[in-house]
Predict the 3D structure of the following.
Amino acid sequence: MDNQSNVIENIKTYYGKTLQNKNDLKTSACCTDQKIPDHLKGLMGNIHDDIVSKFYGCGSPIPPLLTGATVLDLGCGTGLDCYLASQLVGENGRVIGVDMTKEQISIAQNYEEYQKVKFGYKKKNTEFHLGYIEDLDSIGVADDSVDVVISNCVINLTSDKRKVFSEIFRVLKPGGELYFSDVFCDRRIPKELMDDPLLLGECLSGAMYIEDFRRMLKDLNINDYRVVTESPFEVNDADIRNKLGMVKFNSMTLRTFKCDFEDICENYGHVAYYQGGIHEYPNNFILDDHHQFEKGFPIPVCGNTSKMIGESRFREHFLLVGDFSSHYGEFSCDLISNGKYDNPSSGSCC
Ligand SMILES: C[S@@+](CC[C@H](N)C(=O)[O-])C[C@H]1O[C@@H](n2cnc3c(N)ncnc32)[C@H](O)[C@@H]1O
C-alpha cells in the first residue's frame, strides 16, 4: 500500500471503527467549543441523536441565505450539517453529502426518510454518496453546478489538498461560495506526522499552515478569502503535544467565492448599503471579521468585497454604488476608521 492509501485507510478506521461517538475523541481539535449560532439551535433539535452523537465538526459552516440553493458538504460524516442545510434550503433546494467512510455515511443515509418526515417534506432534498472529495466527478457533481460548498473539519485530513480545492472551484457556479470550518496552524507540520493515525485522526497533523492555504488558493486563481471566525485551541495531552512541538492551532471558519479577485484590496470607489431581508441578519450583515454592514448605512468597500456581495447570491440584498471604471489606488482602512464613514460596525478588509 502506498503512503497516501495508508493515510486514507487510517482515517477510515479512525472514523469508522475507533470512534463510537464524540466522547471518544482524545483532543478538542475536532470538537472545539464553538458556539452554535442562534438561528441553528432550533433546527438542531429536529435531528436524530444518532446523527448528533457522531458529529465531529470544529465549527458551524452554515452560511445564511440558502433557500433554494444546492449545497455540497465535503466529508459530511453522519450528516449533521447536511440536515441543518436541508432545513434551510427548503424542499426545492438540494443537499449533497459525500464521505469516504462507509460506517459514517450509512448513518446519514439510514435517516433520510426519518428526517424528511421530521422536516415535513413530501420529497427528500438530500442525497448521500460514498466517495472521495478529491474526485467529485465520480459521484456525478458537474462543473458550475453548486451554489455553496461547505465542509466541517475534513480538508485537514486529506493528503492531496490541492486536488480538493481544485474540485471545489470546478463544481461551484460563478459567484458561488465556499464556506468551511477547519483546523489551521502557524507553521508547516512535518509530513511524516500524517502517518500517525491518532495525530491525523484528531485533525492535528494534517492541519494546513494558513499561508500555504493562501498560496494554494492563489495558485487556483482565487486571490482573496475572508476569516469569519477563529478560535485558537490548546492540545493538552502531553504525549500528543510533545510529538507536535510548538505548533499553534486555530479552528477557523473561512469563506471565499468563485470570483475574479485581485491579490490585494484595491479602491474603485464602491460603496455598499445592506438593505436587509436576510432572515439571519435582520439588522446587520456580517461578511467576515472586518465587515459588518449595518442596514441602510453606507460602507466603502474594495473591489474584491464589492464582488463578494455583488456577484454572489447576496446581491439582491445590497445596493452597490460604483463600478470598476476608475481606480483610486490601494484600498485604505483609513476610509473607514478616520473618515466620515466612521461607524461602530467596522467595514474594511484590512
Ligand atoms: C472530523 S470528521 C467530520 C465529519 C463531519 N463533517 C462532521 O462535522 O461531523 C471527518 C470526516 O471526513 C471524512 N473524510 C476524510 N477524508 C476524506 C476524503 N478524502 N474524502 C471523503 N471523506 C473524507 C471522514 O470519513 C470523516 O467522516
Remarks:
- Residues 11, 15, 30, 55-57, 75-77, 80-81, 98-101, 104, 132-134, 152-154, 157-158, 203 surround S-adenosylmethionine (CB under 6 Å).
- Residues 3-18 form the longest helix (16 residues).
- The two ends are 47 Å apart (CA to CA).
